[in-house]
Fold this sequence. Notes:
alpha+beta; 6-stranded mixed beta sheet
Amino acid sequence: MTGRSPDKTQDKAPDLRRIDLRTLARQGGTLAGALLAQALPRLAQSVESIEPARWSAKGELRPVKGAEPQVWLHLQADAAVRLVCQRCLQTLEHPLRCERSFLFLADESEVERLDEELEDDVLLLPRFFDLLELVEDELILALPIVPRHDDCPQPLPLFLDLEVADAGEETPHPFAALAALKKTPRPN
């Protein structure tokens, strides 16, 4: 047995709100986990309920001829959420899934130039990066604009005044009073 103490930094979980992307990419490291609704407050406000979101992020350092290697982050995340169907107003279970790659560059002008050219997102490389915020942002972007069932489970309610329809009476036109004023002669 050697007198060496075990390395305690290996047991310590990284602070996901302060990730060093360069180090993660250089090591080709992968981070993964599950997030409860409390860790995703903006997403939780947008839905009826959310199951734990599963995510993984892998760093990659890509060599570039004649330049510094590029820092890439590949993100996958999924969650099951309950929304309100905008057609029938019943609960709708919807899976959210995102899979995106991000290129991080140190030069802001290069970020602007490449963001126009590439399909992948190009972001400015910060000293420390909030990975949890990115996961939440991507899940929010995966929400449907108008949540609705393909086929609603209940027939849609008809908002029709049956008493008026049965009586055979016509409802007065809202501008009928104005038309009557127009027809009456004005005194000189």
